[in-house]
Every structure is written in C-alpha cells, then in structure tokens.
C-alpha cells in the first residue's frame, strides 16, 4: 500500500509546505464540531505525512505520542526512524497539541487512532463492505474518504465514500 502513496510524496510535501499558511487562515472560521486545528508544524507534516496523512495531534494522548515517537524504527511494520533532533521537535509538537487520555480505552495505551472508542463510534455507520474496499485498504487511510484530510480537515461535508 505504501508504494501508491510514495509516488505522490514530493509534490504532496511541497504543496503542503507552500499551502500551510493559506490553509490555517482559510479555515480559521469553520465551525464543525470535530474541527481539527490545521497542522502547523512543517517538519511534522513533511516527515509524518509522507506514508499517510499527518494525523491530527489531538486524536491521541501525549502518552501515546511519546510511546510512538520512542519506537519509530518499529512503526506498525515500517521503519519511520528520524534523526534525534527531528524526533525531538516533532514529539514536542505532538505532545503539546495532544488530546486527552479518554482516547486510550480501558487503561491500555492505544497507539492507533483507529483503535480508540472515539474513532469506532464516529465510524460505526461505515459498512464492512466499505472497509474492505481496495480503494480504502485501511481505516488508517483517512484520505480515502476524507477528501481534505491532507489539510487536517475532517468535516462531514468533505467525505466521499469510495464505491
Ligand atoms: C515509512 C512510512 C511511514 C512514516 C515515515 C510514518 N509512518 Fe505512521 N504508519 C505507517 C504505516 C505503514 C502505518 C500502518 C497503516 C495501516 O495500518 O494501514 C502507520 C500508522 C500510523 C498511526 C496509526 C494509524 C491508525 O491506525 O490510527 C499513527 C498515529 C502514525 N502512523 C503516526 C506517525 C507519525 C507521528 C509519524 C512521524 C514521526 C509517522 N507515522 C511516520 C508508516 C509510516
Ligand atoms: C471508509 C471511509 C472513512 C475512512 C477511511 C475514515 N473515515 Fe472518518 N468518517 C467517515 C464517515 C462516513 C464519517 C461520519 C460522518 C458523519 O457523521 O456524517 C466519518 C467521521 C469522521 C469524523 C467526524 C466528522 C464530523 O464532522 O462529525 C472525524 C474527525 C473523522 N472521521 C476522522 C477520521 C480519521 C482521523 C481517519 C483516519 C485515521 C478517518 N476518519 C478515516 C468515513 C471515513
């Protein structure tokens, strides 16, 4: 699944860096319930948005981000290692913008947004058939349905379920 993503990485990363300022300004007036603050850290966007979208920091707790950032060499079956300086900056950004621990169910530290009760409740209307659609591939592939996920936007107006 990563191959398909990688082809578009250089353009994607450049666009994100160029547009970051515009996006945060343009979306400042949105009033969605589940509005995500625009992703503002360029290093995070570049390093953590190459294989998948740079997930909104507030969807995991600080403890979860800390655990994830300390094991990037074994990152969900991938090697996402960073130099120490970058890891420190990104880790600090994620923890500063992290959400509350309610995202970690039953005391167990959750490293996947898609395993939180919040995510499962929010997506309970998505059918098993849709989750198995090869165009979706994985629940972690937010951008398959959230057309503005790359901009940190998850409004229900920007959802297109692949057929
Ligand atoms: C080399 C590719 C690669 C890079 C770089 C990468 N990841 Fe990932 N990441 C993955 C893969 C593969 C998965 C599992 C995706 C799946 O299950 O479909 C994943 C999953 C995740 C998940 C869990 C998604 C879910 O299921 O809720 C989070 C959170 C995450 N990554 C954060 C990060 C952060 C933070 C960084 C930057 C420090 C990063 N990733 C960099 C490949 C990468
Ligand atoms: C298979 C398609 C699909 C995938 C993949 C998917 N979502 Fe969703 N998402 C939906 C649907 C459908 C809803 C429900 C919208 C509604 O309530 O009308 C939703 C709702 C949401 C909402 C609440 C939006 C609102 O305004 O109420 C957020 C936030 C969200 N998803 C984030 C994510 C994140 C983050 C990921 C990836 C880790 C993801 N989604 C992956 C389809 C998807």
Describe this structure in words.
Helix 4 runs antiparallel to helix 5 (84-96). This protein has helices at residues 2-7, 9-26, 42-48, 62-69, 84-96, 117-122, 128-132. Mean pLDDT is 82; it is low at 1-33. The protein is mostly helical. The protein has one domain (2-158). It contains seven helices and no strands. Bound molecules: heme C (2 copies).
How much helical structure, as a percent, in the residues?
Answer: 25-40%
Number of helices: 7
Q: What is the N-to-C succession of helices and strands? A: HHHHHHH
Strand content: under 5%
Could you tell me the mean pLDDT?
Answer: 82
Keywords:
mainly alpha; 163 residues
Short description:
By secondary structure, the chain is an all-alpha fold. The chain is built from seven helices and no strands.
Q: What's the arrangement of secondary structure elements?
A:
Blueprint: H1 2-7, H2 9-26, H3 42-48, H4 62-69, H5 84-96, H6 117-122, H7 128-132
Helix pairs in contact: 4-5
The structure holds heme C (2 copies).
The site of one heme C has 19 residues, from helix 3.
């Amino acid at each position: 699944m990563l191959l398909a993503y990688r082809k578009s990485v250089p353009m994607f990363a450049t666009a994100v860096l160029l547009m970051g300022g515009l996006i945060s300004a343009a979306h400042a007036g949105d009033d969605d319930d589940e509005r995500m603050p625009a992703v503002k850290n360029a290093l995070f966007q570049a390093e953590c948005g190459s294989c998948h979208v740079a997930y909104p920091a507030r969807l995991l707790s600080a403890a979860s981000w800390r655990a994830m950032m300390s094991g990037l060499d074994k990152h969900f079956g991938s090697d996402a290692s960073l130099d120490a300086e970058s890891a420190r900056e990104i880790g600090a950004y994620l923890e500063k913008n992290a959400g509350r621990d309610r995202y970690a169910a039953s005391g167990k530290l959750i490293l996947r947004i898609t395993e939180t009760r919040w995510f499962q409740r929010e997506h309970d209307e998505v059918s098993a058939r849709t989750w198995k659609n090869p165009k979706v591939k994985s629940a972690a592939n937010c951008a398959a349905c959230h057309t503005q996920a790359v901009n940190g936007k998850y409004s229900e107006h920007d959802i297109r379920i692949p057929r």
